[in-house]
Design a protein that fits this description.
The complex is a heterodimer. By secondary structure, chain A is of the alpha+beta class. Helix content of chain A is about 20%, strand content about 35%. In chain B, strand 5 and strand 6 form a beta hairpin.
Chain lengths: ~650, ~350
């Protein structure tokens, strides 16, 4: 089971409730209420699902997905039932455990059914002692979420596993209004899909929305919604696709406007702004040498991003409510919301207006946020404008980006600025994400040796990406990295010496200089025929060929500027150069021209491909253009031996 | 010194002072027919004939074989006609005969001059065939007028004329025979394009030639091309196209596996070898077809040779990475004006497309 499918499985099970029978308390928030041991029986209403015809091979096969919500004033109970048939040994090996995520601060989890039905009809229950529970945490992030893993026993080809979990969540333990989102399609074929919601009284009536046209919904009574679909094929996968945007989904939420959601989110931030003397003093000190607003922004961002380390304390309401900016300043650590609050506070104290922008880090299409909900957002940054009108969006958790552009990994995501926008929008992105410059001087001497002086410069967001990889390395490790890149890009015949600049200052471009001599690379006794394949451009362009077949994607933009000077010894008379190249297409342009002054040749190469949406109909042409760039960007110099 | 004003006017010995007889009068309708049928070539003999009669009549300074060349003198042709007309007018005035009509030599010369200029100009506009024909027909007018005057003089002054058939020496017969035979291929090649046009093979501007094998198409950017031979297939190897001007040529090569750089290399090497011109200047550029995303390579080599004058060989190749089609056009001319003009409309390869 790969990481992505684990996520879907976990997401699908992210529901709750309580159940009876011979309950076993696995922990104080996980109860095992399923039959086990000698008493395991098939739930009668599920029995028909074990008799479905499986002659058609649909790949991974889910027989039933049944999700129900019971909405009450103080809590919500969600029941989730899954029956899955294991088709192959590979599936068993890769996917033989089920995973459920639970937040004990707000939710109680009950495992109501957990058994395996074998092809011969035998039923085997899960031994509760085999259930594993561990903290769901990442480096430097500490929270309440737990991962419950259920290993399925005695699996074989044709086994059915049945899991029913019930999750009960208290409204009072939530920092933001509840909402339930569910992806209706996964990688597996689903034979039967059922959804239902019930509410205790009219005041609790939710709204719901879906873009799945295969879902049929009815209202059996005034306080109930039932939806059903069958024979849902597995979703087609692609090399580069954002499934969070693409997968059809349904969301159920209370009747709220975006403004109400935004007000709640914004309140968290505004209440945490200390606006204290300490903040003012710190901001003044940080900007004492700054001549302009841009310099002030740069200094303060560099401090918050670089000197306030990232540590997330996400327990309880702390998952959504930031610490006061004074506290974060004092602790010198915080998570994204803590650092953003501190950044905004510092900026405002020196007269730069900034506001929080909440980010849905897995979403790039605002139209796919079907209903107002705070639960889409899992990150926050600060945006604002300088007094000269220049706008900025900066991410204080990114210590490698400059203040003049947005963290590359944030660009293009869905963001919501509650005090500025009426609903979520796409965070602006640079015209070109990947911008590289190559400056090279080559000298071909009479002995056939080639002396090369090279500068490769990564600009803007590209510099931030490279900087993040180099920041923690020693000088020796950086040189090893540069050598590895050089040898895999240009040639492994030599080992140049490297010098770096712009690593420490995030406002600078990042430059790698090298110098090397290729000895006897040419035969000095024959006519000159020197070929150069534009290695750095080939490397850069090679990243962007798409293997997608089904879904469009956002191309982030690429720019390359190459300035090459070739000095040829007088023993050769240059008589021919490469063709001039001008490939102008709807995706961008490749230009190459050369000038000759005596035996010195200047080759100028430029590629400019702005950010753009690449739809499936464009894939072939887009890849062809990328291929052309790689193939035709090189040059050669021909000369006659004198 | 004698006063020229009292000297007797030049005379014509209409009695054939040298023992030879004058040519019989030539009816103007016959002259017109001969000029049209021979596309004006009869004018050479006509000039010879008029000059000979003047010489026979006592004007020894008229050497018939020199006047035979008069139509080749371009716009000086007008002076030649003026001169002949003036000589015959003097002949008429030297007799007591009543000469009708009496032509104006200056007017005839001017008319001949204008038509000669017109013929020259229109002959430079290769594609404008009708103005050339009109100009050529107009050039016959002064000849017909003068012939009328000559006929009147002869009929009123000459006692007798040479009687056909004329006797030719063997050398003359051989020369005439060779010329007559040479006229056959000249006539054939002159009419070939027109015949092809009548047969529907010469194509209009914008016509699309589709390769029967479906590998490429060629949209003609200028008129005057001859269609690829019916049944041609790119799998049959290269094909030649016939251009509107002789000496110019074009050909198409279809290659399943040649890359553009090797095509360009081969092209430049071939041009330099073919024209024995190591200094031929070649420029290369590459672009992309915005619809097919095929790469287009354009190589143009220019130079000059003693025999051909200026020349240009243009290669236009398209590749999709697996296959390529190249069209090569070569033109040359000793005359700079014609060369530059043809060069400007011979870039046919811009209409070449390699099918997906």
């Amino acid at each position: 089971m790969n990481a992505t499918s684990r996520f879907w499985c976990g997401l699908a099970l992210a529901l709750h409730a309580a159940h009876g029978a011979a309950d076993v308390a696995v922990t104080d928030y996980v109860t095992f209420a399923a039959n086990n041991g000698e008493n395991v029986k098939i739930a009668e209403h599920l029995r028909p699902y074990y008799e479905v015809d499986y002659s058609d091979d649909h790949g991974e096969f889910t027989v039933l997905r049944d999700h129900s919500l019971e909405i009450e004033k103080a809590h919500i109970t969600a029941t989730h039932t899954v029956i899955r048939r294991f088709q192959t040994q590979d599936e068993i090996q890769e996917d033989g455990n089920s995973v459920v995520h639970v937040n004990p601060f707000s939710t109680e989890l009950t495992i109501a059914e957990a058994y395996v039905v074998q092809p011969n009809g035998d039923v085997i229950g899960v031994d509760p002692s085999t259930i594993q529970i561990e903290n769901d945490t990442a480096d430097d992030v500490f929270g309440d979420f737990m991962v419950v893993t259920i290993p399925w026993p005695a699996l074989q080809e044709g086994s059915f596993v049945t899991l029913q979990v019930i999750r009960r969540t208290e409204h009072s333990k939530r920092a933001t209004p509840w909402s339930h989102g569910l992806y209706l399609q996964g990688y597996d074929y689903v034979h039967d899909l059922r959804l239902s919601a019930r509410w205790a009284d009219d005041s609790l009536k939710p709204v719901w929305k879906t873009q799945a046209d295969f879902l049929t919904c009815t209202n059996p009574d005034a306080r109930r919604l039932d939806c059903r679909a069958s024979a849902i094929p597995g979703f087609q996968t692609d090399d580069s696709a954002n499934y969070y945007d693409l997968l059809p989904q349904v969301i159920v939420a209370p009747q709220l406007e975006w403004s109400e959601i935004g007000e709640r989110l914004h309140t968290f931030i505004s209440k945490a702004l200390s606006e204290s003397d300490q903040i003012a003093r710190t901001a003044a000190k940080l900007t004492e040498n700054a001549d302009s607003d841009q310099d002030k922004l740069s200094s303060i961002l560099k401090f918050v991003a670089g000197e306030i380390r990232y540590v997330g304390l996400e327990h309880g309401y702390g998952s959504h409510v930031p610490r006061p900016s004074d506290t974060t300043l004092e602790r010198r650590f915080g998570d994204c919301k803590d650092k953003t609050v501190l950044l905004i506070d510092l900026l405002q104290s020196v007269g730069i207006e900034a506001t929080p922008v909440f980010v849905a880090s897995r979403r790039t299409d605002p139209s796919r946020l079907l209903l107002p909900s705070a639960n889409y957002f899992d990150h926050v940054i600060a945006c604002g404008s300088l007094r000269d009108g220049a706008r900025f969006c900066v991410d204080p958790t990114d210590p490698y980006s400059g203040s003049s552009y947005t963290n590359p990994s944030i660009q293009g995501l869905v963001g919501y600025a509650p005090d500025r926008d009426s609903r979520p929008i796409k965070i602006p992105s640079d015209r070109t994400r990947w911008y590289m410059r190559e400056d090279m001087t080559m000298e071909l001497d009479s002995e056939g040796n080639l002396k090369e002086n090279l500068s490769v410069t990564y600009l803007g967001p590209y510099a931030a990406s490279i900087r993040s990889g180099l920041a923690g390395l020693t000088d020796e490790e950086r040189s090893e990295w540069a050598l590895d890149v050089y040898q895999s890009t240009v040639s492994d015949l030599v080992e140049p010496a490297f010098e770096f600049s712009g690593i420490d200052n995030t406002e600078d471009d990042l430059q790698v200089d090298s110098s090397v001599v290729y000895e006897e690379i040419l035969d000095p006794d024959v006519d000159l025929d020197y070929r150069e394949s534009a290695s750095w451009l080939r490397r850069l362009a090679g990243y962007f060929e798409t293997e997608n077949e089904h879904y469009g994607f956002d191309f982030e933009g690429m720019k390359f500027v190459g300035r090459v000077k070739v000095v040829v010894d007088e023993k050769w008379q240059i008589n021919r150069l490469s063709p001039t190249v001008d490939f102008q297409t709807r995706f961008g342009r490749l230009e190459r021209n050369q000038n000759r002054k005596g035996n010195v040749v200047y080759i100028n190469t430029e590629v400019d491909m702005r950010k753009q949406r690449i739809e499936p109909d464009d894939f072939e042409d887009f890849n062809t253009f990328i291929s052309h760039i790689r193939q035709f960007a090189g040059f050669r110099i021909l000369g006659e031996l004198q | 010194m004698d006063d020229p004003a009292v000297l007797p006017p030049p005379t014509i010995d209409t009695a054939a002072a040298h023992g030879e007889k004058l040519h019989a009068p030539l009816q103007r309708w016959k002259l017109a027919l001969l000029l049209v049928l021979t596309l004006g070539v009869f004018a050479f003999y006509w000039c010879y004939r008029l000059a000979r009669d003047l010489k026979v009549g006592g004007r020894g300074e008229y050497h018939p074989w020199l006047w035979f060349l008069a139509p080749l003198t371009g716009i000086s042709y007008g002076i030649a006609i003026f001169n002949l007309a003036a000589a015959y007018r003097e002949w008429a005035e030297a007799t007591d005969a009543r000469i009708v009509p009496v032509s104006n030599p200056m007017g005839l010369g001017l008319l001949a001059f204008v038509t000669a200029v017109t013929v020259n100009v229109t002959s430079g506009l290769d594609v404008l065939i009708w103005p050339l024909l009109v100009a050529m027909l107009a050039s016959f007018v002064p000849l017909l007028v003068l012939q009328g005057q000559v006929n009147a003089i002869k009929e009123q002054t000459a006692p007798e004329f040479r009687t056909p058939p004329m006797r030719f020496t063997w050398v003359q017969r051989v020369v005439v025979g060779v010329l007559a035979l040479a006229w056959i291929p000249i006539a054939y090649f002159s009419l070939e394009l027109e015949l092809q046009q009548l047969g529907g093979q010469r194509l209009a501007q914008g016509t699309v030639i589709e390769d029967p094998a479906g590998n490429f198409s060629l949209r003609l950017p200028s008129a005057g091309w001859v269609q690829i031979e019916p049944g041609y297939s790119s799998t049959d190897a290269d094909v030649e196209l016939l251009l509107a001007d002789y000496g110019d040529w074009a050909a198409i090569w279809y290659g399943p596996d040649r890359d553009l750089q090797s095509i360009a290399d081969w092209h430049i090497e071939w041009v330099r070898g073919q024209y024995a011109d190591e200094k031929a200047s070649c420029s290369e550029d590459q672009s992309v077809d915005t619809e097919s995303f095929n790469v287009i390579s354009r190589v143009e080599c220019t130079g000059s040779t003693l025999l051909l004058g200026r020349y240009v060989v243009l290669s236009h190749a398209i590749s999709d990475g697996r296959r390529s089609v190249e069209i090569v056009v070569a033109i040359s001319d000793l005359e700079k004006r014609l060369f530059e003009k043809r060069r400007s409309y011979t870039n046919i390869a811009s209409g070449l497309r390699l099918h997906k």
